[in-house]
Batch of 4 targets.
Target 1
Amino acid sequence: MSVITNAPRVRLLDPNAALSPLLQEILRNCERRNIRYDRPLVHFVMNLLSMDPQYELFMETLSADRRNHDDFIEACCNLLADDRSPTLITLRMQCFFLDNFFDKDEIVEKHARNLQAKTFALTKEIIDNDVITKDEQDEVFNKVILDIVMNMGLGNPDCKDVMAETMRALNSVMSRSDKAKFVTLDRKDRLMALKDIREIVAGIRIFNKHSGNTANGMADLPKIIDQSHESTKSILQITLCEIMDKVNLLTSALNAAIAYDLRNRSIITLLPENITPDDFEAIKDLLAMYRQHEVYTRKLIDELATIKISIDSCKQEYEAKLLRIHEAVQYRTAIPTDRVFPKFSELTRVWLQFQNFIFLLSEMNQISNTLTSLTERCTSFDDLAYRLLGESQIQTDVDRLNKVSSKRFVLLDPKNCEIVPYEEIMQIQLLKFCLWHLAEGKGLLMPGSTELGVCRVQKEHYLFNIPEPVTFFDEDPNKYFFKIVETARKKIQLICLLNIYDKVQSSYNAPRSEGFQMKITTTCDQEVQTDLHPVPSNIDREYRWNVWDYRREAIRLANIRTKRTTSVQTLESSRAIPKSTQIYLAKPQTTQTRVSRSTETEQRRLTGLKVIEPTAPSPLKVYALTLAQTSRSAFNKNGER
């Protein structure tokens, strides 16, 4: 069974803005009815159901009808209500796989971001802290060792032996002067140097482990990857075998309950007495669920084979780099360190690739386990399938197709089809299921036979499992295309399973078979050269695309007629009005004051007192001596005393 290409993820998983009002009503109804829902699943179901033109959500010629919207809301809620139905579980699988099926580069980047977020605080302390003393320098390099162990995956940081070996590897790379120079670098240069130190020290530890030296706590990644690959491969193969057992049972049961009415060009359903038409439809939905699980499991197996090729190539590169380092280390006295250290960095990069492979295998196991858990949640219909099977034998797809391997398509007068032999490079539509069974059986999944030949219509290839319906299909292909599209509108899980999203969407405006014509998407490589500015730019700043903007403007202008205009000068607007102020200029002025005068007093001498002379004459004493001399000279001049 071939693996389908990925459905248009963006158009199916992202919310549709046109359906936002209906989304809120669906969520309210689900809460009112106690229906558990996931918002991505609700978007997925709404996008698929909206392609049914009976709800008239996007019709160009019909007006919106509230009753159709209510029917759409009710259909979504009913589909989400039965949590164990095969239809809803198939939709859950499709939504989960489209959203989580990994791109290898994206998974690696996601892990790198998670690891960087966990070690961000530690790295910030290393590159931001200023170092002055020797103790602070030792503390910084203890953090460097912890950073190397955590980022390079060299073991458990809580193990003392792991930290000691990493310290010895670091000391073999950096001397005391190198460490002192490291802590003096600016933030950007220190971060770049830290990345180089990580790769070199990790490469030394990896080489020591390979050489047989002590490497406590380091995992043997090549051995672990081989074990993980074998374990994942066996789990996927066992899962695929279990799926095919269910597929063979359900397909054989459905095949036993149908008969071909080639005269009327239809398929007749022959049900036992204890089987109802609803039970028959449930078996068809269950088969679609297991077929979808089969497709995704085969997709994972193919991806695992691609990863295995990359693992083998990486292991060869790993061994080659170890050999080069071993040869260089033997003559390390003759080879400079600037030529040896880059080899350790290259070895570390290969080591990190091994870690990335482990993350990819882990992600693959997680996806497989989730898909299996979803299918196990479905209601069991084994008893119903065995009752429908009756006395018929369970056949595989190969056994069923071998019965018609000797037959070939015959078109005596081809009108719309062309019969071509099968080739491996052909892209078969409808997942290699029989087109006639899908159309006349209303979603009946029966594998087509490549031995009969391939029917080519409008550059697309289709298969059948019996030769007679090819003549019917050649007469009017659009009739059968419409039946398949109409079935996919009712069973929306078939849109992703058969990869017919584009066909269903392109036929939206054809709700009936009259006038229906399948549009084939064609592509071609084309180059167009235009002038830089063929039309002069004319941007109208007053243009409004919304008519309601013009209506609001008209209302505003109409209201102005009933208003009176007044003006008030405010503090802000006062600056716009010129003003002038008259002031008195400053003029010089003087003031006359009284003449300073002094009064003389009589000098009295005291006897009998002991005067203590200070070591330095005080200002008072100087003043007293001056006053005495002045007084004496005055008395002598007048002839008194």
Note: The first strand starts at residue 258 and ends at 261.
Target 2
Amino acid sequence: MVAKKDEEEELARTPLQAIILADSFTTKFRPITLERPKVLLPLVNAPMIDYTLAWLESAGVEEVFVFCCAHSKQVIDYLDKSNWFGQPNFSVTTIESHNAISAGDALRLIYEQQVIRGDFILVSGDTVSNMSLSQALKEHKERRRNDSNAVMTMVIKQSKPSPITRQSRLGTEELFMVIDPETKQLLYYEDRVNLKGYLSLDKALLTDNTSISLQNDKQDCYIDICSPEVLSLFTDNFDYQHLRRDFVKGLLVDDIMGYKIYTHEIHSSYAARIDNYRSYDTISKDIIQRWTYPLVPDVQFFGNSATKLERQGMYRAPEIKQSRLSKIGPFTVIGTGTSIGINTEISNSVVGEGCSIGANVTIEGCYIWDNVTIEDGCKLKHSIVCDGVTMNSGAALEPGVVLSFKVVVGRNFLVPAYSKVSLLQQPIKQDSDEELEYADNSSGIPEVPSISGTLDKLNEEERTELPDSQEYDVGDGGVGFIWLVSEGGQEEELRHSVAPIPVDKLVAIMQITNDEVDIPNEDGSFLPPSGELGPDSITNDSNEDAEDIRDDSIIFEREVEATFQRAVEEDVTDDHVILEVNSLRLSYNMASADCAGALFYSVMKLALDAPHDSPNELYKNVVTTVRKWKKLLKYYLPSIDEEIEVILKFEEMCLESAKEYSPLFLQVLHHLYDQDIIQEEAILDWASEKEGAEESDKVFVKQSEKFIQWLKEASEEEEED
């Protein structure tokens, strides 16, 4: 008993440690990562790894070990020159290896060095989070005290996949997990790509557990709280290479050792990992929109250069030169030392430091890194432009383009959609993208020479073996090679790009999805995509059903609002929004009235969030906003029932979430009538339904009495005629 107490006291004195696996060589970010490690790629206004380190420091971690594979020298040099070394109460140590080709190899090497002395946090160097670790650590330690086999706690977060693409907003595949709803123990883990069209569960999951919850609306944050046994398990099992595919799944099916993995779900905090270009785009937008606070552009932390937050989510660094006739739109970041020419428009984009942008340039939804030159008349849309790139006058980038370091695009040259252009020629032998979570098969090969010099530094043998078909130029005066997309790779480019998936592609995916047939169970029933299963899972409890419906309604409204907000920010067409909302409607099994109410709420909230100093200015915002989105609103108002739902939703807003609208109820209602959005029949039916209500529910009916009376008289006159 005394020995156990001493051991617990010793563990309590052990500093909280973390391991960062810096997978600096991933095929999903090629050709960029042939020249620079992924963790050093800029994310808004700081390298990725700085976000990870800043979060760990704020979360109370005291010792961090950064494991480096390919491009390890660049990572070590960066950290050596940064302010991370020598911080009080926060030490950063690098561990280098050129032989490790997987997460398993990395963890085995760390185990051999005997640097981990207790429970530790395991993350990748592309993790962005602001979550507190205290509650997750507390749960982990309590479980460990009661059960020494509880070796890992995985952090998860709700993230319902798109009903069209079956991907998360981060571009990752739909994930299926089975979790014990009482203990939060993980019982099953599989992503959609490995399911081959159907989900098969071991019957033992039902027989050995009184209740299980099958989830497909959770995101794996790739933040793991591990006991020291995790390292020894990798050492004992050399076939463990992938952290999820081998280790997690291996423990879940191992009935002999009995090791257990648990989950910790976060709700209000942020946590995500940059796994592909789409997640790079999504997380960048989340940072700009301040979901990651305090890790945001206008707050100084190690590695970033603070900028000033202005209205509509615009950030500008000091010492920029901007023409008075240029326009910088909302949710845009402009780095220090950048110049912007006359009549240039930039929106929903990040522009790095020291860039020169000419006149009459259009940049929309792009990531322009440092020291980029964009000459007059260029057009860029939803693309990534790396350091030192030059775009000659009149050049254009179609959506999804990636220009790697120091590429030169020729005058008036159009780079086709989803192209990747590099000074390095495309390797003849492509690595398969069986990506280990933190390092791929190529992470053990020697580093590719830096492109900081001339083309003569490229490997001569590689260049001579290049097929002629790959030697594409990039226009007059251009320097660079367009990499070919492998057969069948076009779909992956669409799904993982920073560019939104085109509407025609979404329609095609929906048609394919609608043609699929669900596979029934042996008894003819269908397994629900998410929900609690068990002996008492079928219930007639109307209260529980009502609660589930309410929860779905709330989540549905939030999803519609988020979809509408993205449409506003990215200037998406009405048709695209309708497609997205329809898919949400099918996913949540909602009626047309639910769509009408949710969209009306989103439109009115947009007007409310716009600058205004008086009720009159707020009303003008409403007029402008309703005029712009009139077609979208009317699409979901096919009958009087939906129109009444809109009036009821507006009543609810005036009483609860948007009381500023209360004195304007009549004016707004009258405007909706004038715009033929709400018909007189809907208004009269709404007023009629309120006749038997309590006085407190008649506030807005009384406010509208004269208008309602006028409508009644007009209606009666029409009937007489």
Note: Confidence is low (pLDDT under 50) at residues 432-471, 516-550.
Target 3
Amino acid sequence: MGKKRVLVPAKDVDLSLVQYVPETVQAPHLTGFGFRLLVRLIEAPLIGPILMNYLKKENKIDELLRNTVIPEEPMFKPEYPPQEKEHGVVELDEDGRPEDRVESALNCLPHYDPAELWESSSASFRYWKIRDYAYAYRSRKVTPSMVAERMISIIEENGIDKPPTPLLITFDAAEVRKQAAESTLRFEAGNPLSILDGIFIAIKDDIDCLPHSSKGGSTWLHEVRAVKKDAVSVSRLRSCGVIFIGKANMHEFGMGTTGNNPNYGTARNPHAPDRYTGGSSSGPAAIVASGLCSAALGTDGGGSVRIPSSLCGVVGLKINYGRSSMEGSLCDSGTVEVIGPIASSVEDAMLVYAAMLGSSSATRISMKPSTPCLPTLSFDDDTNALGSLRIGKYTPWFNNVHSTEVSDKCEDALNLLSKAHGCEVIEVVIPEIMEMRTAHVVSIGSECLCSLNPDCEEGKDAKLTYDTRTSLALFRSFTAADYVAAQCIRRRNMHYFMEIFKKVDVIVTPTTGMTAPIIPPSALKSGETDMQTTGYLMRFVVPANLLGFPAISVPVGYDKKGLPIGLQIIGRPWAEATVLRVAFAVEKLCGESKKRPVSFYDVLRAN
């Protein structure tokens, strides 16, 4: 008795009384035999539910979902009021040709002379941009086929047992050579399809890309699900001349934040091969950070593009929910997940985003998305647009990190932005962050379980990793009432954030609460459960998934160990252009002293 809690309507919450509650996760960190034993116990008919109920009680999940009266009605997917048009932008035709959108994106970029940098003898490290590749191809300094051979040699030389591989789950050298030869012929004829022609891109293993199967990082999904055509996002990139190198490694079915995968081996962080890349888009981020590809496609349902991008020192764009079609991905019917680009620079992420965007017909009816736009970074008014920018920061949340090196470096980036452009930093208050996190895990967990249940009922769950089985045990403990309560919390959180966005244009946080964690050797064979680390990695990413907002992770420096730190920029609904503009400015201010990863390959110049 006396457990019931009654929430006042979100619109009546007094923000002056809101106290930030530091998030703590109560769960054991286990690997090896102890982890395998735990999984057996939580799957056992009698003791399993007791253990799971205990863990949920310790983390106040039932208190938030079952003992609380929530006055709001449920919001089963993001809903937004009409949005004001962004300033200093170019509108894109989402029904037009992807090549034309990429050309429009190219025209938005500032002047850049690849020839000057190609001849430069500067000792400072930098990633080659897509524009560098295009220059090298068009000036015949190198061909896509030459780059393909260098890449194939590197991939084949690094066997599955040698860090930083395995970056790819599926790889076909003959298919890569075929695509590269076709691109080379187009350049020889003087008819490249777009600036993306001949650009090598990796595709996460939960996005369809012919002729490869999609396994979702598992050992068996390809046995029950055939790939008959490219995912829509992949098809759009293919029409621009992109060369796909294969299917990139990932945390099995995206159910983890480290990238651990005992099925194919765990991808290693190019900056420190004894550390995780972050996940679940582990392979895509590591491939880009190691220099093998200019960009990759990942999926982001709980930070899975932004977390590995931050830990690997690259750029990860989480687009607005519904901005691009999810058809042809394993998560095509969820309410929190999107496909997004990972790239070595903001401008390259912008070029790939321009090609792949375009809402489905169902989304256009249900969500009425604003016209997709890109920032005009090539024009002088970019500085004026930044000068009027209002940046929201919730300081207690911002500073709740594993090491102050993370928050300090992100604070430095904010100060540089304000000093250079006159941006105003405004303190905001975000209520019920713990409730939001709970609503997210119930939402994404229920959607994952719904997707996998038919195959699990046929016995495939025995072939899942212990990590995935642990997640599914938790997800099975959620009830229909829990799911509805989570959607009521979603509406409350949406109200809070939309009120904040009346005062600010973006909200900034560290991308993750820690830098790349060490891989326990005992976790390589059977995986691990480490919810404290998951808590730090996911601390700041949840709002963009539960509420659908666009967000980006951009590198802002390194900790004392030389591990990358990322700053997250969260935008208003459909405001990818503003997010990209701010990220571009941050990159320019913080990206001059990039550190060469320990595992890096220059496939363009090969010297």
Note: The mean pLDDT is 95.
Target 4
Amino acid sequence: MLRFLAIDGIKQMQHLPSKLKLFRSLRASLSLPPPHPKPTIKKRAAEQNCLSLLQLCNSLPKLLQLQSHIFKLGLQSNPLVLTKFISISSDLNAISHASSFIFSPYVKAHFFDTFLFNTIIRSYAVTSDFKHNALCLYGKMLRYGIWPNKFTYPFVLKACAGIGELKLGQTVHGSVVKLGFDDDSHVLNTMVHMYCCCDGGVEYGRKLFDEMPNWDSVGWSAMIGGYVRWGLSSEAVGLFREMQVAEVAPDEFTMVCLLSACIDLGALELGKWLEAYIERENVPKSVVLWNALIDMFAKCGDVDKALSLFRSMSQRNIVSWTSVIDGMAMHGRGTEAVSLFEEMKKDGVVPDDVSFIGLLTACSHSALVEQGKGYFYSMTKEFGISPKIEHYGCMVDLLCRAGLVQEALDFVQRMPIKPNPVIWRTLITACRAHGELKLGEKITKELIKHEPMHDSNYVLLSNIYAKMFSWEKKTMIREVMAKKGMRKVPGSTMIELYNEIYEFVSGDQSHSEYKIIYQMVDDIGKEIGRAGYVASTSEVLLDIDEEDKEGAVNRHSEKLAIAFALMKTPTGTPIRIVKNLRVCEDCHSATKFISKTYKREILVRDRNRFHCFIDGVCSCKDFW
């Protein structure tokens, strides 16, 4: 399989743009560079002096002085000195300057060696914006006739991973096989990581992983991390179980990836098990792992546990504070989020733009309008942070949730940067919720002109027409969507029960017990109907009679999941579910009645926040 992928990668090479054909110079035989001249005692002393000075270099001005010193000593072609110069330049974020010096006409390239090229390739591979330079230098290395070694390819593959070009990665894979480094575990692990970073590469990564002669924790972590990166969280958890069977001890990175999978799945019980495993197996708990645990508990519904972990940390960074502030925001505990933000400032931690997003979201979800405005303007005045589109979006959301639609519109029109479609959709939703239907219709039509293939814009307009009882226009929207091949994104809800994840979609009949579940949904409808529940059908897309509409909303995914939980769990057990979309008006109302009628605490995480339903009341106070 390894060789099949490699050969396929080499065949793909001819289709790449010319700037990516970096590997043509890889020939059956590569000439070795000429041997280095034997240094004299004087030269050796000068070399050691220069290396010592480079080791002490800690600023760009000193680096420039040392560059002149290298010339004065005649060491501009000494590979050992040049390699150290590159390494120090990388530490000082001056790799581009080092590269221009190394490859200047004053430096004799025929003295270069593999170690020097590995160092400069690595330096570019770890940058954010210049990873392509690492590949260009790899091509130059081959053109100079310098042999790569097993330490070259992890850096080259890391650069490929950062660029995310699958065909380019396959080409490098071909070179690895041709030079015989396809049995080195470090190279193979990095190659798995590379494939998992490329769109469409996860399957290649898994095939490569399965064919590896030996597995270590790095390889397992790379594959698990790849699954999590592309939203394949169930596969990540399944692979972790295989890892346990193989008796390979997971490392910190594995745990961080699995905690991210728990967040995606809403799997609180699995997250608790992972926390216990970390303690039991004495997995080192760095700040990164602490932060991942806090984030998992907050986003899986146990924000008090997240806060407890935060309080027990001996060292915290800005991510620690932001994670717990975000958690409070998602749970509608805005006052506590504000208190934590003020505590963070007193602790000497300077907030960044990300922490302000969490803070403004907290204000939005808790109707703290004036405080939210104050914090928004303090970003620039107090901390010198220029608001980004996300911060403006938070402010629009804050005003819209408070019913201040006109003020929100004025705010958008005064924004110094162009509003994005998310901001306009926030305004449209508020127009529908607060009766500004004509304004909502006008904005939505403009949005459709700019995004004619975005299905949610049509659904928003359809919902506005439903509120206006304009059934003819609503039907027309349905027909337009059908002609364009659009469908409303189906709602799906996940629930974790007894170490298994179950997923339901609207109208789902795939479950083996779906008939019993549907009967339970009908029974629930009768029970809560007697308690005063009336179905809200205005968000049903189709123009059908009212009885059929009630049937349609009765098959929403969250109702199926709640019915399944009521069937399978003891009386009084809390129910936790995760919805992929914003919870609809009808399901929100129905869940309040279910929590009271069946005496259950029901925690719903939707696309925006948590809703905690207890005894007929939601924690969002209908402000969602």
Note: Strands lie at 492-497, 500-505, 575-579, 602-605, 610-614, 617-618.
